[in-house]
Amino acid sequence: MRDYRELVSPETRYFESRQPFATELGGVLPELRIAYRTWGKLNREKNNVILICHALTGSADADVWWDGMFSRGGAFDASRDFIICSNVLGSCYGTTGPISLNALTGKHYGPDFPLITIRDMVHAQKLLLDSIGIKRIRLVVGASLGGMQVLEWGLLYPDTAQALMPMGASGRHSSWCIGQSEAQRQAIYADSCWNGGWYDLQTPPASGLAAARMMAMCSYRSFENFQSRFGRRMQDDGLFSVESYMRYQGRKLVDRFDANTYITLTKAMDMHDLARGRGAYEQVLGTLQMPVEILSIISDVLYPKEEQEELGRLIPNSRVIYLDEPYGHDAFLIDMEKVSRMVREFKEKRADQAA
After folding, report:
1. Could you write out the three-class secondary structure of 190-247?
2. Pairing mode, strands 164-167 and 292-297
């Protein structure tokens, strides 16, 4: 993996806290750094805030990985909205994570980085927003891991998050998803360079991380998408087209992501359960009172529509909308024109209701 500073935008800002950050599961970070980006201007009332929560291997550069969502009159309109996206706790794009230096030891955390949860990610984001003076968020939006954060915002800070739009996410990680994550982690552990997580950043467990990414790609897309895109086509080098694609995706992730980070974040996703420590699942979801628009991707095999429909039944002021495209879980990154329209329509409906 390259130095993360080569992988983030020069417009990235950093929030630094010298206060210890206690994690939900008992760990303590002696200090905290959060990388973030903003677009647009905060209005006088500070009520035009949109918070974007990114997915597993995303970063604060939402205008790069979700570029089709940024436009005048679109989902994220910098002429009207103040848009903010922070790199999640535990990631490798500027926020404190396994590749960060531990202030107490002067060495990279590596596998000593504490176990974190989605709630820890949201608490860290709240510290960032407090530092900017933001007390209300007009809309919290995100997909996959980002969608999990969106839902936790509603429960952790209901007085701050005024509306939620989770996409392609569930209220608790299923055994299907946990099994997928564990298979991917075992691929990393099996790499000869893994060394218990104490690998040199210049010689990471590249084969294991690439294999983990290839496994993940099989769940991020759909049968129909693979068939229509690749079929059984062979290349001149003797590889099936889909083989070449999978190897490319593996190499691409190795070049931009860290193995310990991958393990940290997938374990956090596996811990995702809105009801953990709060009571019965149905009752916990029933406490969410803000408007919630739940985007379900029909072809998603990782987080099937039944999970979003369950959220829709249990969250009082909610509605499920559907993205009926053949791309699988990654549709939120592919069909941006439709997703942007859905976000814009939800924003407009909320504005009409507030008027």
Report:
1. CCCCCHHHCCCCCCCCHHHHHHHHHHHHHHHCCHHHHHHHCCCCECCCCCEHHHHHHH
2. parallel
Does 352 have pLDDT greater than 90? no
pTM of the model: 0.97
Q: Which residues contact 227 (CB under 8 A, 6 or more apart)?
A: none
**351 — pLDDT class (breaks 50, 70, 90):** confident
Name the residues annotated as catalytic. 144, 300, 329
Q: What is the pLDDT of residue 2?
A: 64
Query: Quick check: 180 and 216 in contact, CB under 8 A?
Result: yes
Residue range 165-212, pLDDT digits in tens = 999 999 999 999 999 999 999 999 999 999 999 999 999 999 999 999
| Start-to-end Cα distance in the chain | 49
How far is Cα 221 from Cα 234, in angstroms, rounded to an integer?
20
Under 8 Å CB-to-CB from 343, ≥6 apart: which residues? Answer: 69, 75, 76, 139, 141, 165
Query: How would you class 337 by CB atoms within 10 Å of its CB: exposed for 0-12, middle for 13-18, buried for 19 or more?
Result: exposed
With beta carbons less than 8 A apart as the criterion, state whether 290 and 159 touch: no
Q: What secondary structure letter does DSSP report for 114? A: P
